[in-house]
Amino acid sequence: METPGPPAPESRQSRLPPDRAALISPKPAIACLLAAVSAAVIVLLWQSLTVHYNYSGNWTALFCTGDTYQVPPGLAPGTYIFTGTDGYDGMWYRYIAHDPLFRRGLAEFIDVAGIRYRRILVPGLAYLLAAGSPERIDGAYIAIVWIFVALGVYWCSRYFHLHGRNPGWGLLFLLVPATLTSIDRMVVDGPFTALFAGFLFYVETSSWRKAYLIALLALLTRETGILLIAGLLLHSLIEKHYRRAILSSTAALPAAAWYGFVWRNTNPGALPDVFAWPVVGIVQRMFTVREFPGAAWKELLFQAVDLLSVLGLLLSILLALWWISRQPMNPATIAVGLFCVLGLILGSPYYLTEAYGFARAVSPLLLFVMLAGVRARAWPTLLAPLSMTVSVGLVFVTPAWRVLLGILR
Q1: Helix (H, G, I), strand (E, B), or coil: what is residue 388?
Q2: Rounded distance, CA 117 to CA 222, Å?
Q3: How far is CA 281 from CA 65, 121, 157, 304, 313, in A?
Q4: From the CB of residue 16, how many other CB atoms can be counted at a distance below 10 Å?
Q5: Greatest extent of the chain over all pairs of C-alpha atoms, in Å
Q6: Which of 75, 103, 252, 366 has its CA 20 to 30 A from that of 300?
Q7: Residue 14, pLDDT above cutoff 90
Q8: Checking phi first, is residue 179 left (phi over 0); if not, alpha (psi -120 to 50) or beta?
Q9: Average per-residue pLDDT in the chain?
Q10: Count of Cβ atoms closer than 10 Å to residue 5 Cβ
Q11: Residue 3 has pLDDT above 60, yes or no
């Protein structure tokens, strides 16, 4: 592995076998770009329909703001409020986008600002895209999510073409739980998983500078970005390239500086209670029954989907370990292994309540299993990650039904 610093004398393609070098030529980029644009159009179409038919044309509904917490006075007018609910994480990142440098006092309205503010990349990009204009920030945030969805599909398409598969398979990125939740509630997990897709592709093509940059940005998106940096660092140490290891570790410096800035401007946030001994939390969740309001058949359906999603998580971890054991060790496979460890120690009953929540943190792992399954044409293996997609997808059923009724009227 080369350093993330100066480029090697030889070109990227010269370091690959002739057949692989041909696959990363500029020509397939057109098909991959088409898949990416198609994905962005699909997301735009869905959001336009659901905002029109479900939320009276108010696009702020995508941030899922609840009425349990006070909405900042400056943002309250025009904000779509979901009554009787806490809302969801997207509303906090919206507040951050409107006040990324702690100048408007919006941090006071965020549940654990010391943690939320660390995830600055998406809110920060929205602020920059809007040039700081409060009237444009919400729209810019939504556009940033579109861009990351397109990037995730693009990188997945390039990955598939690199391994001799149709680039159209890159649209699988739309079915990753983190992607769906970001489309639905503007969380940062979808953009993070898109960056992970880029990390996989650039490691595969020995584009180490780009892999380094992706890891740097990932840590500014979510704390789990440290696993990508760890992949670069550990691989260098295993290969005894100590100078390279030191250079790889510098990818954490921008996030460290930003975390320090956040710490000085917020109250220390309590660490979320999400961990347990390996596998213990997963097993406990299998035997935990949730109460669902409504008819008995609905309760039975949701219980079955809950169980399948937890089993899907465990099976996805086992599949990921199997796939990485059959591939050459590199920073990406090390990072996937670390995501497997993360999945195994998820244990808080609150955190494992529903796949809509816990599947977001392990979505890079789920994406890897999808990519490996298609790459090897091992189609049954796709059922494991897709079981969590089904669980997350249930959230879309009611809005989709209302959209359909609205169109037919």
Answers
A1: helix
A2: 10
A3: 30, 31, 35, 18, 12
A4: 17
A5: 67
A6: 366
A7: no
A8: alpha
A9: 89
A10: 13
A11: no
Q: Cα 168 vs. chain centroid, distance in angstroms?
A: 20
Give bridge partners of residue 346 from the DSSP assignment. 275
Burial category of 372 from C-beta neighbours within 10 Å (exposed 0-12, middle 13-18, buried 19 and up): buried
Q: Which residues have CB under 8 Å from 50's CB, separation 6+?
A: 399, 400, 403
Q: 66 - beta bridge partners?
A: 82
SS3 for 65? strand
The residue type found at 20 is R
Check if the beta carbon of residue 14 is closer than 8 Å to that of residue 21.
yes
Phi, psi angle pair for 298, to nearest 5°: -70, -40
Using alpha carbons, list the distances in angstroms from residue 116 to 99, 226, 257, 368. Answer: 12, 16, 16, 26
DSSP state of 62: G
Rounded to an integer, what distance in angstroms lies between the CA atom of residue 22 and that of residue 260? 45
pLDDT at 12: 44
Q: What is the tens place of the pLDDT at every residue in 34-63?
A: 999 999 999 999 999 999 999 999 999 999
Q: How far apart are CA 308 and CA 85, in angstroms?
A: 26
Read off the pTM. Answer: 0.91
Q: What is the pLDDT of residues 329-340, one digit of tens each?
A: 999 999 999 999
In contact, 343 and 273? CB cutoff 8 Å: no
Q: Which two tokens stand for residue 399?
A: 């809005």
Residues 6+ apart with CB under 8 A from 193: 152, 173, 176, 178, 179, 363, 364, 367
Predicted confidence at residue 271, as pLDDT, reads: 62
Query: Which DSSP category does 347 fall into?
Result: -
Helix ranges restricted to H, 290-408:
296-325, 331-345, 355-361, 363-375, 383-393, 397-408
- Here the tokens at position 200 are 């996989």
Q: Which two tokens stand for residue 301?
A: 């359906």
> Could you tell me the two tokens for 349?
């009953």
pLDDT category at 26 given cuts 50, 70, 90 is low
Which residue blocks in 239-295 are alpha helix, DSSP H? 242-249, 253-265, 280-286
